[in-house]
Amino acid sequence: MFMTGIGSGIDFNSMIEVIVASERAPKDNQLNRQEGMNKAESDALKELQNTINSFRDTVEDLNSVTELNKLKAELSNSDTLGVSIGAGAVAGEYNFDVKQLAQAQRDQLVSLGKDSYLKSGTISFTAGGKTVDVDMAALATKLAGEQTTKKAEHENRTLEDIAKEFDIEMDDAGAWKAEAKAILTDPKNKDFDQKRLDSFNEGQKNYDDKITRLETQGVSLEEIQLEINNHPDNNGVKAR
């Protein structure tokens, strides 16, 4: 329905719409411009954030050992010197004078299976111009003698401990040993202790087993290595 002036023929509705539209146009244009500016700023901020994140990742990579290891190290003579790049590596050229090369620290003497022993023969170990000769039979005799000495020392220590525990005077004549041994071995003695005797017998048996093995089977590879390493003529080179 149209509102018109009496007899004027004027379309008031159209006039009102035109007036309202003209009033709104500046505001609508302003809002549209602001919306466009906001979107542009948002896109710019997103792009800036992505750039910052990329820069941060690059810095973290530069701080990592993995990235540093991408540096290349070259040697003019790799036979005498080795090189690796660490976190504190600085690019540059370095010169080293090698005055003396280290001696090889490992030589294979002989290969033995598990629980295998050598009873006779001689093994020679040469290093630094010096030779160490190890006679198997002589070494077995030497080691068996050491075990016999250790067995006797073990018994003496045990008897001394008993004498101290029961206030037995340890005179020079050695009579105290008989008294201490009675306490150790005689079940009828009032101070006898079966656990103490069992522990003592186990220790003595270990010595006896080693002596028997050395006398009947020979020496182990470990014993040969130890003999060579302790020899004054091995020039500081360890046999392993």
TrEMBL record:
Q: GO cellular component terms?
A: bacterial-type flagellum filament cap; bacterial-type flagellum hook
Renumbered to this chain, the signal peptide range is: none
Q: Which domain of life is it from?
A: Bacteria
Principal place where this protein is found? Answer: other
Keyword Coiled coil carried by entry? yes
Provide one Gene Ontology biological process annotation.
Answer: bacterial-type flagellum-dependent cell motility
Alphabetized, the UniProt keywords read: Bacterial flagellum, Cell projection, Cilium, Coiled coil, Flagellum
Q: Where in the cell is it found?
A: Bacterial flagellum
The question of whether Repressor is a record keyword is answered with no
> Where is the Flagellar hook-associated protein 2 N-terminal domain positioned along the sequence?
8-105
Positions in coiled-coil regions: 31-65
- Pfam families to which the protein is assigned, alphabetical: FliD_N
Record-stated family: Belongs to the FliD family.
Q: How does it assemble?
A: Homopentamer.
- Indicate what this protein is called per its UniProt record: Filament cap protein
